[in-house]
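Subject: Sanity check before I submit

Could someone independently write out the structure tokens for this chain? I want to compare against mine line by line before I put it in a report. The sequence has 345 residues.
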Amino acid sequence: MQKFKILLIGLLLISTQLLARTESNPFSKTLDINIGVDAVWNYQAGTAIKSAKSKQDPDTYYHLRFDGRLLRLVFGEANQNDITKVKHFEQLAIDDVQIDGVRLPLFQWCLNHQERHSRFLQQDLSVEKNICMNQGGNGAFVITLNQDTLDALETGKMLSFFVKPFRTTIVINFSLSDFAGMVVKLAARKTAPVVAAPIAAAPAKTVVRVCLVNPPAGFEMIKAVEYTCDSVSDEVAANNKMAKRVGIAREQQKKEAVEKERKLQAELAAKQKAEQEKQLLEQKKKEEEAALLAASQLKRQELNAEITTKMLGVCGKMWAMGEHRCYCQKYIDKAPEDIRANSKC
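---
Independent answer below. Compare away.
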């Protein structure tokens, strides 16, 4: 019975942990927006445009534009369906572009050829040949199509953009069932002859002037921020963006300076330690040499004393017999007086 209770408690703990793992993370939300064929294509000056907003995200219009070469996703203001009224983001991230749940090879190429990292398309980071452009400051993402991608769009069922303008990931799904027909209509409109209509000349197109906020001296590595010259709000936003970039760069410079000083102090400490170890080694070597010399001298003295003792023993026997040998001359001062008197070596 006790074993059954333990088994039951274990199963309850495991099931509780599995349930906790399957619960959604409140900090990792995803919003799906589906735009179907009820949002029709409109044709303007060689460009096809599909615009729609969703109940899931009533604050934004999503405009999909195609001109035969560029595919552009534009984030518009929700209060009016106007392609020129766009949202401006500080940090728009493009996480993925898929057709029928499979990442576009062209998008993967853009990730692999983006400066600094390849995790997602980051706002204002450049991609080789500008094949992909994350223009979050102007509320747009642009990709230059190749033939393989265009073929996939014409034969696919769903085009999905995975974007993150804020903390929430938004998946924008466009139905592709009318894409091939749109391409045919767009091509026909581009090749159709233009007949002049007896109407008054159209007003001159307003040229939007673009100004720049340049970085201050010492921060030339920061890219200039563009804004519409005639817009005060855009100028304020551009200056705020530049101030933010300068602040980040200044903090990075401080960190680099601290790291440089730390490395310098570490090198000096290592050099001092090496010099101290060298001096200690030399001192130890001198002490060992002195000890060896002293030991050698002591050994020599002991050997000389041993030889002297042995020779005095030999010579003493000779002297006792009244004889003297020249090999005993070195010790003659130890001989009896009569031997010293008759020493002839």
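---
OP: Matches mine. For the report I'm noting this point. Helices lie at 2-22, 105-112, 147-155, 179-191, 232-320, 337-341.
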